[in-house]
């Protein structure tokens, strides 16, 4: 399939929210620059390969979910994203927007895969969560259909996670609280996919009906599942500090973050993405979060 977008596409940037470094076994880029993406879809597992070809994007897919993944290419690359009405109320965001005119919020159309990752990232250091994500994908996900890299994996399905015994969760380094949340979600996973159709605050509210999924987790899922432009990850360790220092020169708490982003509603997440695209990050000072290895407990 050859997709000719009516807008500038930066594959690395639009897909960056899906990546977690070498721990992202479901999305990889090979030495030829081909992006390989493996996902669970309503039709089953599938693999999508994307490559730039001049102003076009070449897409090929394999597995039971191939057709659905190909149909979803435009949305994945941000075709449904609409920045109309966005106003930069701060000079730093205005400058960041000028430097990233092609920034778009992509949508995978999938809740489950990103729910697993978001739950694993709850209240733990990033390296710890990424390690667990990689372990679950490597040992309990299946090899991605098609000719992709050997280590490409489809994330474990709800059925696969419900079948895991305690020692396997322990092996993946997942504590009881996050495990319980994942099992709660796995029992109603098919219903949660409707959040994509609902979108916005209503979609996030549906996700939060699962015990253990709060504002932060629902926002992280929404950003990836339907490219929610207003889903702010309140409760995040880094974002209030990053936004505060970028816009005010001082650290913020969640209340301060909500106040300073209020003028950007209903596109508050877009404002944050412009800052991130500009390379603005949380100032590095103070002690690092200690890593915990639940496999040793």
UniProtKB/TrEMBL annotation:
Keyword Zinc-finger: no
Keyword set, alphabetical order: DNA damage, DNA repair
InterPro entries with a match to the protein in the record: Alkylbase_DNA_Glycosylase/TA (IPR051912), DNA_glycosylase (IPR011257)
Source organism superkingdom: Bacteria
Protein's recorded name: DNA-3-methyladenine glycosylase family protein
Species in which this protein is naturally found: Amycolatopsis samaneae
